[in-house]
Known about the structure:
two-stranded antiparallel sheet
Amino acid sequence: MTPRELAERWRADADLLRRRGAPHQADCLETCARELEEILTQYELEQLSPTDAATETGYSAGQIRRLFPGRKRIPRKDLPKKPGHGRAA
């Protein structure tokens, strides 16, 4: 399960709680889902240097520079993932 899928599940659980008469618990769960999504968005939009991007992707900094010519910073969400190289989020 991805973190975004978890946030979706929390929202569905909040809907169920609300239908079952637990609006305060539902509000709490929705707040958690919203906070998780905000953090994920910030993480994905973080601008990385080619060196930092290389560390995250498994590609070399030179390969990253060739993939993103002229760019000094690359959003994490745009980075390729080298097969077999684990990456968070």
